[in-house]
Design goal:
This protein is of the alpha/beta class. About 50% of the residues lie in helices and about 10% in strands. Helix 10 packs across helix 11. It is globular, with a radius of gyration of 26 Å. The N and C termini lie far apart (about 85 Å). The C terminus is likely disordered.
């Protein structure tokens, strides 16, 4: 065979190999796109559940934080795996409970917001899932303040927790003391990383806004005599605790490994901004579908018709 024919044959083989390579890459790309599209297709019950939940979210509060698509995917995975959907709600044991206890005659009487949440809202939300064949495990944890001077006395806290725990009639709703039953009796601790690298881990804008809100609140207490500088240091400690709690909920010791849970907050979603400092995906777990601050006696201005 002549040199020219050999060269022509080698050229044709090279061209054929190149064409096959292009086809192979195109087929692989098409397969990846098809797989992604199939994985994004939602089950009919997921679509029904999310339509109702997003409707609640939009009606609850103007400019409410929207429900992230992560929630849709998480619920779908729970269905496909035959698992229950894990929902976490953190109930703040506010210092204001002491003033409320005195105002109600040294006892606790349920407020309209608490009755509405426990007797109507939570059962309605659970039924959205169960009517579509999805089981829910709803964990309500009572969380004390991070700062000593903001903590309610143990006796009042126990009376309040007992009242709230006895009000919800739904199965699948469990009430827990966060420190005693989730942290083994330990107080929450701050993140050493955040304390050491505060400026690089925490948004200054978010911190300044939180500080302004804190300053406005503490000025209502006549016995507060601290300086603004000391208050800033207290807030840094609190922010570091929130960042550590967010990290814990995503860590190996979390009751929800790898952050597989939905957070239904009883505070404005913005209050969880620092929980995402060490767990950037935290915000995607937030599903604001319940009235905020049910424990406040002055919460009428914060509630909306569902």
């Amino acid at each position: 065979m002549s040199y020219r024919k050999k060269k022509m044959r080698a050229g044709k083989l090279h061209q054929f190999t190149y064409t096959v390579g292009l086809l192979k890459r195109a087929l692989l790309k098409w397969a990846r796109v098809l797989f992604q599209r199939r994985s994004q297709v939602r089950l009919p019950q997921v679509a029904r559940i999310m339509e109702l939940l997003r409707r609640r979210n939009q009606r609850l509060r103007p400019n409410n934080q929207k429900i992230d698509d992560w929630v849709d995917g998480y619920i779908q995975q729970c269905i496909l795996k035959g698992q229950g959907v894990e929902i976490l709600t953190q109930w703040c044991l506010s210092k204001d409970l002491e003033a409320r206890f005195r105002a109600q005659g040294n006892q606790f009487t349920p407020l309209e917001g608490e009755v509405g949440l426990l007797m109507r809202e939570i059962p309605e939300i659970i039924r959205i899932f169960t009517d579509n064949g999805v089981r829910v495990n709803w964990w309500v944890t009572f969380n004390g303040a991070f700062l000593d001077r903001c903590r309610v006395t143990p006796d009042i806290a126990n009376q309040y927790m007992a009242m709230i725990s006895g009000m919800c009639p739904m199965e699948g709703v469990v009430f827990l003391d966060w420190e005693r039953e989730m942290l083994g009796g330990a107080r929450p601790k701050p993140s050493d990383i955040v304390l050491a690298q505060f400026g690089s881990t925490i948004s200054q804008k978010a911190f300044n806004l939180d500080f302004a809100n804190l300053l406005r609140r503490v000025r209502r207490y006549p016995d507060f005599s601290g300086s603004e500088d000391s208050l800033r240091e207290e807030l840094k400690y609190k922010v570091a605790c929130e960042a550590e709690e967010g990290r814990f909920l995503f860590g190996v010791d979390s009751p929800f490994p790898c952050g597989q849970f939905i957070l239904v907050p009883l505070e404005f979603p913005e209050r969880y901004v620092f929980f995402a400092a060490l767990a950037p995906e935290f915000k995607k777990r937030i599903m604001a579908i319940a009235r905020p601050y049910p424990w406040r006696m002055d919460a009428e201005s914060l509630t909306y018709e569902l």
